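Protein modeling request. Please complete all fields; requests missing the sequence field cannot be processed.
Requester role: graduate student
Desired output: 3D structure, token encoding
Chains: 1
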Amino acid sequence: MLEQVMSLMGLIASIWLVLGVYSAAKLYPNYNHNEQFCSELGAVGSPTQRFSPLINNYPLGVLFCLFGAYVFNLEPNIWLQLTGVCIVVHGLGTWVAGFFPMDADPYTKAPSRDCNIHSWAGLFMLLSLLLAPIFMLIAPLSAINSIAFKAFSIMSLIATIYTLMLMKKAYVQKQKVGLYQRISYGTQLAWLSVLSLVISFS
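Delivered output (202 residues):
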């Protein structure tokens, strides 16, 4: 039973994040999911500065780390182990991003030290879930890593990179950056959720 729960941690984390962001946004007057970053929920001076990390970053960090450790220990396969390490790094980045809030103005030209740390943590989070599907593509075929899952990994990578480009453009134009951030991160979480389900039912 415990092993089954552990194998589903990736899916649970994804669902938790969606519910957590939605719940925190409800307590943030006039919060706009299309125009604002998820991190603005925990930004300095926001109405949910302390609440958002408590229900999002900290428990999510635990879930990601537990799932990553579970993936690492599945079998003695270096590529699967590297995938597990990436997921753990994603969890650690989630903790750091929660502890060090971004500045109130996401477009500030002179970010604070905490905001810089937050941004670096976000970069590690992004890269970790870009590398994880690549490692699974390199990994040999197995009950977990089927041809179908490899094809899904390729599609997820393409979708993530494409929407990241759209998010960068939206950031420059200061329009719909929140929407494209959610789509881009959502593609990564979708990959993680499918990996979780594949492991659970393999």
